[in-house]
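Below is how a single chain appears once it has passed through the pipeline. First comes the sequence as given, then the structure the pipeline wrote out for it. We keep one example in the README because the format questions we get most often are answered faster by looking than by reading.
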Amino acid sequence: GETDGASIYYTTDGTTPTTSSLVYEISLTFTKDTTLSAIAVKSGLKNSPISYASVLITEKKREYNRPEYRF
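Resulting structure:
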């Protein structure tokens, strides 16, 4: 489509993303609750509206299998 090759710029600090923001190139890892804001930019096209995603970190409970002992 016409947006193939667009660059995605993002922020995680609550500021509005611009072409001076970080460029999305690899998967992101979050260690705390974060709001991700992003725009897509391609020469000759109008910049996309800002997209927002909320990342909530929850504690994952591990379940351990107890080994059975036979006497």
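The first strand starts at residue 7 and ends at 11.

See the next section for the split statistics.
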